[in-house]
Amino acid sequence: MQYGKQKINNKYYLFNQFNGKMMTGWILLNGVQYYCYSDGHMAIDEIIDGKKLDINGKYIAVKLFVISGHGAGDPGACANGYREADLTRLLAKQIKQLGGNRVLISEYDRDYYQDNGITKLKLPITTSIIELHLDSASPTARGGHIIKQKGTKATESDIKLEKLITKYLPGRSKKIVYRDNLANPKRAMKQGYDYRLMECGFITNKKDVKEFHEYLSELAKGILEAFGV
């Protein structure tokens, strides 16, 4: 008879601590939620019923999902020796490093616009989403801004992001704009997610690109603070 958490053939199983019965489904153990499949093996580093389980099988309440714009063969805008897809992933990686298990980032080689990824998400509806991009225009255009789907309202997080942009990526007169011609904001609104797209300056502006790199850590910290992470 086995009890508690046991490793069998490189998989983990949970057995009732009193009668040794193999446990399945959602299990609350010492204040932590786990999930075991019908054959008993524990889910590890997966999303089950919209809940993210970490590498130890523990449910961690994810607060922020970060989508890196472009990728999967689409470099996005290219200028000043950089590709938009690379820069968005650079910032997303920094956000994840600082935010830990409360943050999920999109897969490195995936384009959430091309594959309609937002409609396939299985995250709790309470998860906030930020999608990272950089603008492209004339070399003199500069500054970041937030794009919200028309018909939605700016949240407290958006107001904090507006202040972050004003401090580190200034240049635009309007820091929060509402549009109705972008696919992902529409998809997110239809799914009921709290979503915004953040343009992190202009990749075509040398000063914006310089400040993006110079303030990378500050931008990541500010984004996390905006969502209470």
Automatic annotation (TrEMBL):
GO biological process: peptidoglycan catabolic process
Name under which the protein is recorded: MurNAc-LAA domain-containing protein
All copies of domain MurNAc-LAA, residue ranges: 66-226
Pfam families: Amidase_3
Matching InterPro entries: MurNAc-LAA_cat
SUPFAM superfamilies tied to this protein: Cell wall binding repeat, Zn-dependent exopeptidases
One term of GO molecular function: N-acetylmuramoyl-L-alanine amidase activity
Lineage: Bacteria, Bacillati, Bacillota, Bacilli, Lactobacillales
